[in-house]
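Posted in: Protein Modeling Q&A

I'm a second-year student putting together a small comparison for a lab meeting, and my supervisor asked me to include a predicted structure for N-acetyltransferase. I've never done this before, so apologies if this is the wrong subforum. The sequence is pasted below exactly as I got it from our records. If anyone can share the structure token output, I'd also love a short note on what stands out.
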Amino acid sequence: MLPFWGHDQAVAAWVARHIPGCERGFDACRAMGVLDGENLVAGMVYHNWEPEHGVVEISGAAITARWLTRPVLWQMFAYPFQGIGCQMVLMRVSERNEQWNGRGLPRLLKAYGFDKHTIPRLYGRHEDGHVFSLTDDAWRANGFHRKELAANG
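Accepted answer (user: helix_wrangler)
Welcome! Here is the predicted structure, written out as tokens:
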């Protein structure tokens, strides 16, 4: 799996097509795609950037579970925390999306250091949602990237 940058609008459009209810897409954003050979198999969009608060929202989609490798995770979170100086990232997830490529998304995010906050009606009158938050401190402490953090600060 090969993460790549520099095609923000194309990757953001691909991600929006793969997220139910995201027809409006994303306004100003950055995006990271993930290639499996020549095929785009995953993307992460960084949007709703609030530099005054050091917070950015991330949204993603994938068509295979194989995309989520440690090097891809490193790229995904080195950008907000080291690249643009975020102190926290947020991810919104519908309660109906409890499974992510056969894995429990909440379980995966918790293992990575995210905190889960349930918001009634976040996705409309009949659909609750979760906001997952990950601080830079929790990201550095999660143990997934000791080698990369030691080499890159």
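A couple of things worth pointing out for your meeting: The mean pLDDT is 90. The radius of gyration is 15 Å.
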